[in-house]
């Protein structure tokens, strides 16, 4: 094991064409959580490259040569002997003992209960981060975003391999039941669904216990492979479900519903901006902190939008809504309404706004 630690200590870190994320690391101890291929390892390596080579030790815990018992026995002594200041345990396994070091960084798909570590939740690229990979900032960039989603590695995957590549990522990181749940969610994304409904559907095609499905469903939420949005003021009502990345829709299902995919994409932008949101009848997203309603209308025209506004006037009045934003694909403008400011904003402008 000491030979492997020496190898890790001497091996130079290589990071090809890294694009900065909105999140950066400081001289603190962290746990960085995120789904597979969300960019955790590259974020850490980018930080390590700013440090003196002999001051850190980077260990990828997925290395099959690691004997965890031996590692636990030797790691602390190795760190002290080599004056290691920063220890990175990438793809951390909970059986590995955490040692005393000036700065500790672990990465994991799920959140771990270590109160002394500051938590960073790393999501796939948002649209602004995605643009750093693009050669042109025009409609072709947005179309490309729809095609490949927010996993940074997808910029290196050819179009004909895209769906199989994404399927393999999920198969590698999820058990069979969780994978089947993801397939079902891809078919009904941006719609209201309960764990019980998923159980009722899946039990028709496979043997499954309710407890196991509920556990897997909860784990998918905890690991942020799926996200649930509550109905405003009704936490027990059926929640709307969204995928962690829009590209999983096409990879797991042949069902086509661009409006629902567009809504999922808008939700992810809200999520990554840490904006609390809820749904309401006939309202895609309600943002209480800013007294704003978001309507997902990729191909809206003013007549239909005005009809939509009429159907939600009671909510606008009751909750003193200051602004209604209809996010579109390319239409821009405003509508005169007696109760609230109403704007049509193209997605690329909306996503890059403050």
How many discrete structural domains?
Answer: 3
Please tell me what the overall shape is: globular
Number of helices: 14
Could you report the average pLDDT, rounded to the nearest whole number? 95
Oligomer: single chain
Poorly predicted regions are: none
Query: Any idea what the CATH architecture of the largest domain is?
Result: Orthogonal Bundle
In the sheet with the most strands, the strands line up as 8-9-10-11-13-12
Element order, helices and strands? HEHEHEEEHHHHHHEEHHEEEHHEEEH
The count of strands amounts to: 13
Largest sheet properties: 6 strands, mixed
- The CATH C-level class name of the largest domain: Mainly Alpha
Helical coverage, percent range: 25-40%
Class inferred from helices and paired strands: alpha/beta
SSE inventory with pairings:
Elements: H1 2-10, E1 30-33, H2 40-48, E2 56-60, H3 68-81, E3 86-90, E4 103-108, E5 118-121, H4 127-131, H5 139-148, H6 162-173, H7 176-187, H8 195-202, H9 210-222, E6 226-229, E7 240-243, H10 247-252, H11 258-272, E8 278-280, E9 283-287, E10 292-296, H12 302-311, H13 313-318, E11 323-328, E12 333-335, E13 341-346, H14 347-352
Parallel strand pairs: 1-4, 1-5, 2-3, 3-4, 10-11, 11-13
Antiparallel strand pairs: 6-7, 8-9, 9-10, 12-13
Characterization of the model:
The protein is an alpha/beta fold and 354 residues long. It has 3 domains: 2-121, Rossmann fold (3-Layer(aba) Sandwich), CATH 3.40.50; 125-263, Winged helix-like DNA-binding domain superfamily/Winged helix DNA-binding domain (Arc Repressor Mutant, subunit A, Orthogonal Bundle), CATH 1.10.10; 275-354, no CATH class. Helix content is 38%, strand content 17%. The radius of gyration is 23 Å and the shape is globular.
């Amino acid at each position: 094991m000491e030979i492997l630690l020496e190898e890790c200590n001497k091996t130079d870190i290589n990071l090809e064409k890294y694009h900065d994320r909105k999140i950066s690391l400081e001289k603190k101890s962290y746990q960085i959580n995120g789904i597979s291929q969300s960019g955790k390892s590259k974020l850490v390596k980018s930080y390590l490259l700013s440090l003196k080579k002999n001051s850190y030790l980077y260990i990828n815990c997925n290395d099959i040569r690691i004997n965890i018992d031996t590692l636990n026995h030797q790691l602390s002594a190795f760190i002290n002997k080599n004056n290691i200041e920063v220890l990175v345990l990438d793809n951390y396994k909970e059986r590995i003992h955490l040692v005393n070091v000036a700065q500790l960084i672990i990465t994991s798909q799920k959140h771990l209960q270590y109160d002394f570590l500051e938590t960073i939740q790393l999501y796939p690229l948002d649209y602004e981060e995605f643009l750093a990979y693009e050669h042109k900032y025009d409609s072709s960039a947005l179309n490309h975003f729809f095609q490949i989603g927010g996993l940074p590695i997808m910029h290196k995957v050819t179009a004909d391999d895209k769906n199989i590549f994404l399927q393999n990522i999920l198969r590698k990181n999820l058990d069979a039941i969780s994978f089947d749940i993801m397939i079902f969610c891809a078919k009904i994304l941006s719609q209201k669904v309960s764990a019980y409904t998923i159980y009722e559907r899946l039990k028709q095609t496979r043997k499954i216990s309710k407890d196991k499905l509920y556990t897997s469903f909860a784990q998918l939420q905890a690991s942020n492979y799926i996200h649930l949005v509550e109905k405003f003021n009704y936490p027990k009502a059926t929640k709307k479900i969204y995928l962690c990345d829009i590209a999983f829709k096409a990879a797991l299902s042949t069902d086509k519903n661009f409006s629902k995919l567009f809504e999922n994409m808008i939700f992810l932008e809200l999520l990554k901006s840490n904006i609390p949101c809820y749904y309401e009848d006939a309202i895609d997203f309600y943002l209480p902190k800013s007294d704003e309603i978001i309507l997902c209308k990729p191909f809206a025209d003013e007549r239909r939008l005005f009809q939509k506004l009429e159907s939600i006037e009671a909510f606008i009045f009751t909750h003193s809504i200051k602004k209604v934003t209809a996010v579109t694909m390319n239409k821009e403008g405003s509508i005169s309404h007696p109760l609230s400011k109403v704007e049509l904003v193209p997605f690329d402008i909306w996503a890059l706004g403050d």
